[in-house]
Amino acid sequence: QVQLVESGGGSVQAGGSLRLSCAASGDKDSRRCMGWFRQAPGKEREIFARLSPFDQYTYYYDSVKGRFTISRDNAKDAVYLQMNSLKPEDTAMYYCAADPGSCYPGKTTFRTWGPGTQVTVAS
Is 52 helix (H, G, I), strand (E, B) or coil? Predict the structure, then answer.
């Protein structure tokens, strides 16, 4: 069974930075694709980045491209999200997710989810 726990959320001024972590445990074969999602109040949850822990695949959606960087440390079983140039519209609950299926363009279905960490960006 896979477990995911996010950390690193908090409050920051616009233009600031935060680094989120996602600690993973459990079957590595169930974590062939990792994703970062966010859900703002009153909005649907949206994916904005994907990463494959076993190859060089990363993908960013336009909303965060150039500002956010996803990375991994397989030795620590962790995935990270460096968020720079934060904007008030980045305010949301942030979730990491894992799936046994491989990453591919357009993949939005993930089996396992963490509880989330709140990011608030003040203007």
Answer: coil
Strand residues in the chain grouped as ranges (E): 3-7, 10-13, 18-25, 33-39, 46-51, 58-60, 68-73, 78-83, 92-99, 112-113, 117-122
The model's confidence at residue 108, banded by pLDDT at 50, 70 and 90, is very high
Q: Mean per-residue pLDDT for 27-37?
A: 94
Phi, psi for residue 61 in degrees, rounded to 5:
-80, 160
Which pLDDT band holds residue 53 (cuts at 50, 70, 90)? confident
Calculate the alpha carbon distances from 80 to 5, 36, 41 in Å.
11, 9, 23
Which of 109, 117, 113, 115 is CA-nearest to residue 26? 113
The size of the chain, in residues, is 123
